[in-house]
Amino acid sequence: MAVFTDLDRRVCEPPFDKAGYDARRPVCDDVASKMPIVHVTGYKRLFKYIFINDPHEIPPTDGSHSLSSGTRKAEDLLGFKRSVYFYAGRAHRKFGNVALAFFACCEENHTGSATPFDSGGLVHPRRFIKLKLDSDDESRLVQYGKESVLSLSEWRTVFGKILAAYFDNVIDYWKGKPNPHDPEGLYELNDEWRAWTFEVRFYEGQSIFDRAAWCTDEPLWNRLRRDHDGQETKPPGDPPTALDRFMEGPGLIIAPGSATFCDEVERWVRKEVGL
Amino acid sequence: MKCIEMNDLEIVGMNGAPLVECGRSLPVARRKSDGFHCVLQIPKDDEPISFETPEEAESYAATGRWTKIQGTIQIPRSCFSGDSAGFTHQPMMIFADDKLLDQADRLPRPGSFNGERLVWRRLDGYDESIHAACCSEETSARLLDEWSQLLMKRFNAWYYYHRDQDYLKRLADFALCAAISRGLRWKAYLRFALVQEPEKIRRTFDAFTLREFPDASWERYKEEIKDLNDFLNNRTPFEHLSVEKSDDTSTESKLRGIARVAPDDAPTKAVA
Description:
A: 7-stranded antiparallel beta sheet; B: alpha+beta; 2 domains; 4-stranded antiparallel beta sheet
């Protein structure tokens, strides 16, 4: 069963600490309700979103690059539509050198779903996410994955409960790991945060202009400055270019960028949720 | 560092891509024992490093998220102590195009800097003039700052000699790509503005300079550009040497220090 299944009842019994859970709930619910979601990508893709693709959105998995093939396979196995992927409050540097963070309100106009772990890692042939299941068959993993799906409208409520139930301190979502109290060992067998971060999926593209914050590394910041300078000057009244619009939005968290831009985004997220 | 045998790691690339002529980025390392890859960042709070399969590493490289080097580089000794101890300094990849290094008078590429050995490797899929090396984060910042200072010295001299604007803009752009420290970045932005098309200066200021220097004002920025123009036009590069000992701490005094030595190829004004 999923880590959140029957949680209201399970937290009343050992090894959970019901009193601690009740005490943590208000803070965890507040953090969960405010938690920004983060998408990481590379310059080539950002360039496409900014300069080429009207309406300048991060597109759902489209098969236009080789990374998508594994993701699409996972989507097909788990029954997800083609999606735009975010992590709740976490940024993984392996996906590129630009991290874009979005406030919770950006979910209002989307359909989508969420899972309390990285879905691609669950069904990856290398089994990046380990579980204690009665069978190691892919079908059993898929069943677990499907049991763990939440709607966009409910995931933040469940996220708050998970934070309160499994984490002694909410900061451990970034700096530690959850307590190993789930029957399938998701929190026992895995040390990487992809096993306990919430993955949020939008079935429609997400506008890059609606970001709440962003961060990148130094070379990309310098490249954007050069691209910006290379644009023709427009007379007053003409519509701004997409790059102009992008630069007019929320500024870089750390200008002129940082090789550790993912850490910077996560630091910004923690500040946003009051930690 | 948890679960990592230092001798089992070798550097095979860098995170991101060489989008400009120089810069730095986190290294991509490969575990020799199983071929798995990671973006090598010293983990905080004993957090394990996330390793990816060779196939995934290939796909990250193919989509421009990572850039492979040709061959491998050992993790710099300066970044860890002993065989079993963890990292003491964050390793960082530094990349540079020979076109930029030539303008900074730093060709051939330095074999060492700040007491650290630099092993340069070509980048897969990029021009053969672009190379990358690995060193500690501190050394990468110092080396890039040195290049920026050298490029601005050249800029100062050629500005006095009224070299064409495209060339000067290229030098200022290179200096901005290289500069890491705040002070140097401010100086580089001023020089970039000096040679920009006038109608673009405000745009760059609002979109970029102000993001880096939120306390800056447009009026003050314009004044500093004007002061710099006057200063660079009214003193030969050799005159910069004569005013260097001044105790004056004004902006002008600080600017003087940038152009202490004329580049070897700077002609006299009479023949420029």
